[in-house]
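[job 4471] stage=fold_predict status=RUNNING
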Amino acid sequence: QAVPAGSHVRLNLQTGEREAKLPDSDNGRSDTREERRRKRYRGAAGLGKVDVDANSFTSQELKKALAKMKESEKAERKVRREFLAQEEEVRKKFRPIEQLKEEFEKLNMKMETDYEIMVKLISKFNSSASTLDEKVAALYDLEYYVHQV
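[job 4471] inference complete, writing structure tokens
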């Protein structure tokens, strides 16, 4: 956006907006402290000439700011609705692990998690009743599961 020549321009790191400040005075002299305190930075959004008194805003400025707020609210709601729709689609495709375990139990099949398998392999390795071949096989299997983690 074009700004008047001689304006001070900066990027507000808190809001991420570019801001422009009108020059201190027309004749180049420094303003008094009180005058500097009353002046403010304003967004360089192309709103035309703006009164730089910190306590006054034109009705056009307020309307434009309100319109931007409404637009961003609508966009946020749209994104939120899309996210919830995607989440619901995923929920329809997959079932919780508890439900799967119950269904496998009905089929007389036990479903084990990786953690449960690893615990069994460690106990097999630590068991004094296991043979050397069983311990080696347990270590190979453990290596596979640990690599996944």
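[job 4471] summary: The longest helix spans residues 59-93.
[job 4471] exit 0
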